[in-house]
Amino acid sequence: MLCTYPLGRDLPNVDIRRVGAVRGYERTEAGPQRGKILADLKLLFLGLRAAFREKPDVLHAHLHEGVLIAWLIRVLLFWRGLPLVADLQGGLVGELADHGFFARKGVLSSALRFAFTLVEALILKLPAHSFCSSGNSERIFREDYRLSSSRLTRLDDR
Prior knowledge:
Layout: E1 2-4, E2 16-18, H1 36-54, E3 59-62, H2 63-76, E4 84-88, H3 92-98, H4 107-125, E5 129-132, H5 135-144, E6 152-154
Helix pairs in contact: 1-2
């Protein structure tokens, strides 16, 4: 079972459960969007309801916001002892910078970057194990965030 956002393609033989449409969340490309927080809240409730009813063996979260959502589900269903694993494509702070989130110079931009660096460090500690798909993201997680090799696996065509 896959709980996800309202956009995207369906796959044959995969039980995909989507949240309803969210105003301001209208594209599948990476980067911040106006409706993303509401979409994340809806995904939290959908995932919690699905995990409560379906009793999964593991929570597999995609990207940083998915880790936070799955961790909250794990905490709320604590008696199940659900393991959490993460599938991360790259660094959160780097992605936000690439999309101009820290474009302005000054104290506020620096403070936001620092705050998101702390948030990313916290997020990376939540899953029992994380997977990444490139050497660059592996380097970021190991060197910048000190994620141990026992908790990180790079999945690619090497």
